[in-house]
Amino acid sequence: MNNMTRMRIAINVLSEIDEFNDVDLIAYLSWKSIPEAYKLQKSYVTTNRVSIYQLNSTVVVDIGGVGLFQIN
């Protein structure tokens, strides 16, 4: 799956969750895993499992089967 496809899927999945209505930026992260310093805040199940992690003001979203994304 190329990065543009990942971004398209991420936008579709996150648009189903009201919490992300005011997102200005979504960036694909090529990380293999989320660093331990990030703490799990919430999880949702829509068309994919969505786990939200946070470290200070930085939010990272793990979309199952798609990848990791930073949200601003």
Task: Characterize this entry briefly.
The chain has one domain (3-71). The chain has one helix and five strands; from the N terminus they run H-E-E-E-E-E.
Describe what you observe in this structure:
The protein has 72 residues and is α+β, with helices and mostly antiparallel strands. It has one domain (3-71). The protein has 1 helix and 5 strands; from the N terminus they run αβββββ. The chain has one helix spanning 3-14; strands at residues 26-29, 39-45, 49-55, 58-63, 67-71. The protein has a 5-stranded antiparallel sheet. A hairpin with a 3-residue loop joins strand 4 (58-63) and strand 5.
| Widest β-sheet, arrangement of strands | 1-5-4-3-2
Compressed to H and E, one letter per element, the order equals HEEEEE
Task: Sum up the overall morphology in one term.
Answer: globular
Question: Roughly how many Å apart are the termini?
Answer: 24 Å
Secondary structure: number of strands: 5
Radius of gyration: 11 Å
The assigned structural class equals: alpha+beta
Count of helical segments? 1
Sheet having the most strands: 5 strands, antiparallel
State the assembly state of the protein chains. Answer: single chain
Percentage of residues in DSSP E strands: 35-45%
Give the proportion of residues in helices: 10-25%
- The low-confidence runs, each spanning 5 or more residues with pLDDT under 50, are none
Number of separate domains: 1
Give the rounded overall mean pLDDT: 94
